[in-house]
Each structure stands twice: as C-alpha cells, then as structure tokens.
From TrEMBL:
Record keywords, A-Z: Membrane, Transmembrane, Transmembrane helix
Name of the protein in question: Bax inhibitor 1
A UniProt-annotated Pfam family: Bax1-I
Annotated compartments: Membrane
Keyword NAD: no
Family to which the UniProt record says this protein belongs: Belongs to the BI1 family.
InterPro entries assigned to the protein according to its UniProt record, in alphabetical order: Bax_inhibitor_1-related (IPR006214)
Bilayer topology: Multi-pass membrane protein
Domain of life: Eukaryota
Cellular component, GO, one term: membrane
Transmembrane segments: 6-26, 38-57, 69-86, 107-129
Length: 145
C-alpha cells in the first residue's frame, strides 16, 4: 500500500512556470526599488521563519490538522517570497561594496526559488487532493505522465 499522490507532470511544469514568474516579479521589484529600501525585512523574515519552526514543532507534538498545515504552507510561501526581495537587495548591496561571489549569490537565490517552488507545488497538489482533518504528514508525491 502506497501513501502517495499521483498527478500529471503538467502540474509540476505549471508550478515551475508560476514560481518563475513570481520570482521574476519579486526580483524585478527589488532591483528597481531604491537602494537598501527592503533590507529592513531581514529581521521580520527571520522572525517569521522562527514562527514556522515553532509551528512545526508544536504540530509534531500536538498533531497537525489540515488547516494548520495549509496555514504553514501559505505563511511559508509569503515568508520565502519576502526572502526573494530581501536577498536580491542584499546581493545588490554586497556587489556595491565589492563582494562579487557570484556562486554564493546564485545559491542564495536558488534556495529561495526552491522554497517557493515546493510550497506552490504543495498548494497545487492539495487543490487536486484535498487534505482531510486528519492530514498528518504530507503524503509522498509521485509523478506520472
């Protein structure tokens, strides 16, 4: 018996394209904004990430519900889209100060992209296969063509 979701590869492509568009829009907004305009978000985003950690810990102790799981997914999506803006501005600021570590900067943005992609994919799959009140952990996702 498998505990998985079977869905078409088109859902993965749609999630990837949607994530790429959102990533481009938020990165573009950070690039055209005034210098250092969004760097204040670092503390707020770190606090939000800490809240997500504590929600996960509480959920593992007291049990998850479908509502709390989806709240964590949407809140995480908001946090990581904020990190796209913050990290883009931080990279621009570091480049102005002479830090030209392109690999590190690319990996930072790649990590943000993957975090957003995973959450968008979970949202799209949960629309196809609604979670019940006894959601527990997210089932394994199995791609089929």
């Amino acid at each position: 018996m498998t505990n998985g979701c079977f869905f078409s590869l088109s859902i993965l492509v749609t999630a990837f394209v949607g994530t790429a568009i959102a990533f481009a829009c938020f990165t573009g907004a950070a690039m055209v904004a005034r210098r250092r305009e969004y760097l204040y978000l670092g503390g707020l985003l770190s606090s939000g990430l800490s809240i997500l950690l504590w929600l996960q810990l509480a959920g593992s102790i007291f049990g998850h519900s479908a509502t709390s799981f989806m709240f964590e997914v949407y809140f995480g999506l908001l946090i990581f889209l904020g990190y796209v803006v913050y990290d883009t501005q931080e990279i621009i600021e570091r480049a102005h100060r002479g830090d030209m570590d392109h690999v590190k900067h690319a990996l930072t943005l790649f990590t943000d992209f993957v975090a957003v992609l995973v959450r968008v994919l979970v949202i799209m799959v949960s629309e196809l296969f609604p979670l019940g009140d006894d959601a527990g952990l997210l089932p394994r996702i199995i791609l089929v063509e």
